Amino acid sequence: MKILSILIILFLIFISIPLKSFANDPSLIPYKENLKARIKADLKNLVPEEYIENIFSSSQLIYLPNIMIKSLTWKEVELPYYQFLEEERIERARNFIKENEKLLEDIEFVFGVEKEIITAIFLIETDLGKKTGEFPVINVFYSLALSGEKEVFEKFINNLSISLKDDSIKRRWERKSNWGYKELLYFIQIAYQNNWDPFSIKGSIFGAFGYPQFVPKSYLIYGYDWDKDGKVDLYNLSDALASIANYLKTEGYKKDADRNYKKKIIMKYNMSEPYAETVLAIAEKLKN
Description:
Blueprint: H1 3-16, H2 29-42, H3 49-57, H4 65-73, H5 87-99, H6 101-111, H7 115-126, E1 135-136, H8 137-146, H9 150-156, H10 167-193, E2 202-203, H11 216-222, H12 237-250, H13 259-269, H14 273-287
Antiparallel strand pairs: 1-2
Helix pairs in contact: 2-3, 5-7, 6-12, 7-14, 8-10, 11-12, 13-14
């Protein structure tokens, strides 16, 4: 079994422990009500209050304190990106390009992003669409937003390595909770506009969903309706691949640029140098 698979299994066990324990904890009620009122005010005239009420009255809305713990302790540089350069994965990526050659070439022509770069990102993000995540996206951002309450954080974040007395941790905590709240607003708005069941959309432990693993704000900015059916569906292959290309093009990607410039743009997709280096290395293997 590959190292990443082991890590994922261990984390799934770790994150699943508190699901039932904190779903209906009475001490969360006032904070939950305050959050609901804040969301209603910020989404006024955008989302009906009844829709928001239904979300907050649902038994599926669950507080997961481990989401904030993971956000504060995550070390991107330690991820085993090297596994994506294994020949078995490269061969599957080659086959994917062959099977979807016309679509990929059309997208490359429109956006000016090589099909190998698009496929490399698709491979890393979701193993060519096989692994899109198991966490209800709304619960991820709800948990981050709720963890922004100091009293909630100090009661439920039981981790000896995390303390708000540490200025660095405190700054990251504030940034993560504020970001989580804004993404929660975007997600509720998107779910309402698309007539989604908000609890049916699942993604990563950090709320990225669909084949390209976009967070809600990225969905709004970079999502692309390639098949022209009137909606952006990140679980639709053509929309997903076009959205990856649109992301890179919008951020300034140039097909004829040098490697360092391309790496800089790819790092806007994921702020990780190992990630960007792996994308480029995969693309080079696919071209050869």
